[in-house]
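User: Working on a comparison across species. This one is DNA mismatch repair protein MutT from Actinacidiphila bryophytorum. Can you predict its structure so I can line it up against the others?
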Amino acid sequence: MLIDTVAWVRIENGHILCARPRGKDVFFIPGGKREGAETDLETLVREIEEELTVFLDPGTAVHVGTYEAQVPGLSEATVVRMACYTADYQGELVPSSEIAEVAWYSYAARDLVPPVDQLLFDDLRAAGHLVAPS
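Assistant: Here's the predicted structure for DNA mismatch repair protein MutT from Actinacidiphila bryophytorum:
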């Protein structure tokens, strides 16, 4: 089974924005699953507005990469695909009722995020975008 998701990559000062949904104990790159025939950008704009109450400007979106990994705790046949984009935003980053908290992670927090997010962390560190452990 394939879980098709889209994620927003927001990096500031060498740290990436992560969010922890209510009822979960793991932080994820913000984003979510496509609904119906939504495009990547339609999904991204909707999900980020729902989760973080900001509006992404789709005209500034840049594809960072697409990653696939198994989902811990589910069947080995279950894979998540995460299409990642950067984009400018308007508004104040505030967790919605869906999100318990947000955090800014450096590369040192890599082991705290799911496997598919770890692949993104690795690429961002290799490109010099994430602060490396000291």
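For your comparison, note: The chain has two helices and nine strands.

User: Helpful, thanks.
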